[in-house]
Amino acid sequence: MTAPDHALSTVRARIEAACREAGRDPDSVRLLAVSKTRGADEIRALHALGQSAFGENYAPELVDKYDTLEAAPAPLGLEWHFIGALQGNKTRAVAERAAWVHTVDRERIARRLSDQRPEGMPPLQVCLQVNISEEPQKAGVAPGEAAALAAAVQGLPGLVLRGLMAIPAAADDIPLQREPFARLRALRDTLNAEGLSMDTLSMGMSDDLEAAILEGATLVRVGTALFGPRQPKSKESA
């Protein structure tokens, strides 16, 4: 297994190199460590190296890790992102713990998150998940329906609409990888021209973060390159 300091420095170097190629400031791209199926000790190790934002795909895992790592008397103060498919019966647990949700693709889910955001907490930062490659098996709002969903989300008091997120179809080379990312960026720009003010493109993972950064990603979601091969998902995380 790769040491966490080496893995983190390698990923940061990849981000910086891609930003240089794109003529961008490396500080314009945030790294989200995808910690699904990983243990609390692994999260602590990355946090000790300066990584503060972590993403979880399953609500029960988010609850377990949040309640462990943010417990008194020594909470880590991590920034928790929910990046998985969200069922209606799991929205309260996420709304009470996460700072961000990247996978809003239905108005019903958005309304539940807004209604269940506890008073006294800042509004939940959200991205709309767009099925940018229009794959029938994937979650996400269709590109042509994103404007209507964005308008609905923008009016909810417990949420702040920050941007768009996508998980495109896999491709083997950077030119092919860039195409769906370019479409997502163009969709964000179109929606902003129509009156929104989204500043976030959550796109790019371990295998395609360079292509995503070249097309304007502001947040890349990286798991395998930081933690190694994925661990089996527990039954409780389903």
What does it look like?
This protein has a single domain (4-230), classed as TIM Barrel, CATH 3.20.20. The protein has 238 residues and is α/β, with parallel strands linked by helices. It has an eight-stranded parallel sheet with strand order 7-6-5-4-3-2-1-8. It has helices at residues 4-22, 40-48, 59-69, 91-95, 107-116, 146-154, 174-193, 209-214, 224-227, and strands at residues 30-34, 53-56, 79-82, 100-104, 124-129, 159-165, 200-202, 219-222. The chain is built from nine helices and eight strands. The protein starts with a helix and ends in an 11-residue tail after the last helix.
List keywords for this structure.
238 residues, alpha/beta, TIM Barrel, 16% strand
Topology:
Layout: H1 4-22, E1 30-34, H2 40-48, E2 53-56, H3 59-69, E3 79-82, H4 91-95, E4 100-104, H5 107-116, E5 124-129, H6 146-154, E6 159-165, H7 174-193, E7 200-202, H8 209-214, E8 219-222, H9 224-227
Parallel strand pairs: 1-2, 1-8, 2-3, 3-4, 4-5, 5-6, 6-7
Strand content: 15-25%
Order of helices and strands: HEHEHEHEHEHEHEHEH
Number of strands: 8
Mean pLDDT: 95
CATH class: Alpha Beta
Write down the overall geometry.
globular
CATH level-four homologous superfamily name = Alanine racemase
Strand pairing plus helix content: what structural class?
alpha/beta
Radius of gyration: 17 Å
Architecture (CATH level 2) name:
Alpha-Beta Barrel
Domain module count: 1
Low-confidence stretches: none
Report the total helices: 9
